[in-house]
Specification:
This protein is of the alpha/beta class and 132 residues long. It contains 4 helices and 4 strands; from the N terminus they run ααββααββ.
């Protein structure tokens, strides 16, 4: 689902341009962001394009833990604490709960929540803060 969302956002140009540059492919954009990053003494990216695209394009992978360019699932215990279930539905996504999700994130972080219809996963919702 991440790959599909990224492809759609890139195709439809639903992201902020990077230093006014145009990229012919999503792979070219990814190579730009993964080549020789510069970090300051606090570990924050300061190099060219450090602001990212302010979109899902800044997330290039899925992992078990949040990391730069990686989204991670909200853990089962956290899901139950926030939603009262380890299988939340779309109707469970209230503004208050979404605010609580954003409070868990810092610059460059992303997490995702799988939403269910009955016992079946139906949708993935991504949350994140851009590098800006």
């Amino acid at each position: 689902m991440l790959a599909d969302a990224r492809a759609r956002v890139f195709r439809d140009k639903l992201y902020d341009p990077v230093l006014g540059r145009e990229f012919e492919t999503l792979d070219a954009l990814d190579r730009f962001f993964t080549s020789e990053p510069e970090f300051d003494e606090n570990g924050e990216w300061t190099g060219e394009g450090a602001d990212g695209t302010r979109s899902i394009l800044d997330i290039r992978g899925v992992g078990e833990e949040i990391a730069a360019g990686v989204t991670a699932p909200l853990g089962s215990e956290e899901l139950v604490a926030l939603f009262g279930s380890s299988r939340p539905t779309a109707t469970d996504l209230t503004a208050e709960r979404e605010s609580a999700l954003y409070e868990r994130l810092t610059r460059g972080d992303s997490l995702h929540v799988v939403l269910y219809v009955g016992d079946e996963p139906a949708e993935v919702v991504f949350y994140g803060y851009s590098w800006d």
